[in-house]
Amino acid sequence: MPNWKLINKTFLYDGTFDGFLTIVFDCYSNKTLPQKIFSEAEYTFNFLDHTTYIETDFEKSKRVFNGIEKSISYTTLYNTYYAFLSDEPEKEIFILKYLCNGFDIGPKINNMLTVSYVFKVMNMKKRCFGECHRLKGLLRFQEIGNNLYYASIHPDNNIIEPLGHHFISRLPNQNFIIHDKIRDLCLLYNGNEYRIIDSTNIKIPTISYEEQKYQELWKLFFKTIAIKERKNARCQMQYMPKKYWQDLIEEP
Amino acid sequence: MDTLQKLQILADSAKYDASCSSSGSTRANKNNGIGNGNKAGICHSWGADGRCISLLKILFSNCCIYDCKYCINRCTNSVKRATFTPQEVADLTINFYKRNYIEGLFLSSAVVKSPDYTMELLVKTVSILRNEYKFNGYIHCKTIPGCSKELIDKLGNLVDRLSINIELPSSTSLKLLAPQKEKDGILDPMTYVSNGIKQNKLEKSKFKPSFVPAGQTTQLIVGATPESDLKILKLSEGLYGKLKLKRVYYSAYISVNNDKNLPTLEAPPLLRENRLYQADWLLRYYGFKADELLDETHQNFNHILDPKCDWALRNLDKFPIEINTADYFTLLRIPGIGVISAKKIIKARRSFALDFEALKGLGVVLKRAKYFITCKGKYCNQVYKFNQNFIETNLIYQERNSLPRPNFQQLSIFDSLQPTKEDKIKCLTGSL
Ligand code: SF4
After folding, report:
1. How far is it, in rounded angstroms, from Cα B371 to Cα B392?
2. Which residue of B74, B78, B142, B221 sits with most ligand 1 atoms within 8 Å of its CB, as the best mutation to test the pocket?
3. Separation of B3 CA from ligand 1 center, angstroms?
4. What pLDDT is recorded for position B401?
5. Is domain B3-268 given the CATH code 3.20.20.70 in the classification?
6. Which of A11, A184, B263, B425 is 20 to 30 Å from B374 by CA-CA measure?
7. How confident is residue B165, by pLDDT bands cut at 50, 70 and 90?
8. Domain limits of chain B?
């Protein structure tokens, strides 16, 4: 990290991507690196920390967002976006170092896998991207009203938004709700635009006869398609870890 | 008969087909329709046999007029029979798709009445999906051997992928076990489709529908007939090279019928199937030739070592390979180094010369590779000797340790060696 000053400060922010990019903007302009960064909700007070709250500034965040692509590379932006969705506790510091160094040396940064924070960022990206891809397959919609579908998920990482994008381009005429039960977030899509809202109490109506029928058909198909001579529970578990089973319709 | 009963019978009949992937489709969502393709392919579930479930894999009908000896639906067997209607299959597909159970449909069929009659039903089904429901998800259809070229054209313009299963790797075997099917009846339509794809790519325009955009595939049954691994691999090499097939699937033979011409196997030859898949990867992505991997004195794959390790041990004069200077395809020839690792190495060594620690840092697995490489001219310090005996003993020792306990029902310990978990993952991600 060439000529950046380490300052004895803990930055707090609202936990959003825009909030984080605002911090990146400030750090880059002042050429300083804080000791720690926490989302306000996750921070527990500590006498030794000198905390500063950084107010989210959409203008700054937009400039950083565009700047990453322009002065580093599209891949870096992509890595940053996915790594930020990670549940890793110190993700912000790793990504910040990755970006700040990236602004200095350009797209080369993505090749420097032996530098610990670059490796860390790549790994976080890989895990989030991987989980998102996995849920593109494992998510199950249930029809809960006329052309209204509902799915619950329990992901390790906060991947509701890229997951939502996948289904919006795939099923553009279908109204749906994706419910992240770990973070109490809901992504709502009305066939036109989407929103992500907090959702502590969402009530799901009982499902229709038609819906039951298709669930039965699917369960039957799932059971029938396995070849019993080739039974391999270990392999099944490995690709479809138990934590995902609660949201499936079929019973593996 | 209701849909539930039909589904039970016709999914059960389709389950032995190994091809299930949905990869390679870039079909976009157009006309405000339902669905799109995904280039990487998406798995929606995994069955009790550990295979990925991606497509609604069913037969249209299992009422067959043919009598292939290895097939559960041969006309001389007494099994429950059922036939869907095109509308039923279309509704099932759409409703499964909307609930995100599947990526699309994989439809094949037994021969009902005649090849053309059956093909027309398949065309009808797929055209309801594409034209009435505006379905842009993935569709893979199996063509019926012996049907007319016009029907292949019609179907080819609607689906993403076509396949014709060769099933038996030689015409002698075909004659013996599938007397009504002829080799030409299979290879002719394959050549026809392959030319059609080529032609369509040349004339590509907005107004012409694309013809089988995700390419064609086939399946070979392994272990029902006496062909060697070499013979099978040569056949695949030809199919990839001449007919530009996208995939050849190998399916370990499972005894479902008793027939004097069929072997009785205690268990399907899964390890052999796995070795063929590994070798198939080496052909397609690693620049290997079938003749390099096997030869007349060495016609079948080693049970304990994967094809690349096996090859490397027989070609030790090409090793050790220096990590910092070898080109991409040479790196790929190192056992244990796959596409991902090779790319990482090439990327990282631009910044500085790599040693063994750096390789570990990159996440390159050295378990097998360490015997075959040098870093900055030095061997890994766990490798005391560079000779065949030492390396082979160590590799076999490693593999044996990671293989699951042999199943006591089987006679020889070697027959029962199952592919390791690692092998399976590597096979899937392509990093052998
Ligand atoms: S034509 Fe197909 S379904 Fe009919 S017996 Fe032969 S393999 Fe079986």
Report:
1. 10
2. B74
3. 22
4. 59
5. yes
6. B425
7. confident
8. 3-268, 307-429
| Substitution candidate for ligand 1 out of B16, B64, B112 with most atoms within 8 A of CB | B64
The ligand 1 atom nearest the CA atom of B167: 7
B365/B337 Cα distance (integer angstroms): 8
Q: Tokens for B242? A: 């001449």
Check pocket membership of B66 for ligand 1, CB cut-off 6 A: yes
Whether the CB of B64 sits within 6 Å of ligand 1: yes
H/E element, B250: strand B247-252
- Amino acid identity, position B182: E
Cα end-to-end span (Å), chain A? 49
Residues of chain A with Cβ-Cβ distance to B42 below 8 Å are: 133, 136-137
Give domain limits for chain A.
5-130, 139-247
Give Cα separations from A129 to A155, A162, A163, B238 (angstroms): 12, 9, 10, 37
Query: What is the pLDDT tens value at each position of chain A, 252 positions in all?
Result: 556 788 888 999 998 999 999 999 999 888 888 988 998 888 888 778 888 899 999 999 999 998 998 889 888 999 999 999 999 888 999 999 999 889 888 888 888 888 889 999 999 999 999 999 999 999 999 999 888 999 999 999 999 999 999 999 899 999 999 999 999 999 999 988 999 888 877 777 778 888 999 999 999 999 988 887 778 888 888 888 888 888 999 887
Confidence (pLDDT) at B406: 38
In sequence order, which residues have a C-beta less than 8 Å from that of residue A84 and are 6 or more positions away?
A17, A20, A91, A95
pLDDT value at residue B428: 36
Chain A residue at shortest CA distance from B421? A235
Q: Enumerate the H helices of B108-167 as residue ranges.
A: 115-127, 149-156
Atom of ligand 1 nearest to the CA of B67: 5
SS3 of A49-109: CCEEECCCCHHHHHHHHHHHHHHHCHHHHHHHHHHHCCCCCCHHHHHHHHHHHHHHHHHHH
Contacts of B16 in chain A (CB under 8 A): 227
Q: Which of B7, B10, B89, B98 to substitute to test the interface with A, most A CBs within 10 Å? A: B98
Burial (CB count within 10 angstroms: exposed 0-12, middle 13-18, buried 19+), residue B400: exposed
Ligand 1 close to Cβ of residue B159 (< 6 A):
no
Higher pLDDT, A159 or B26: A159
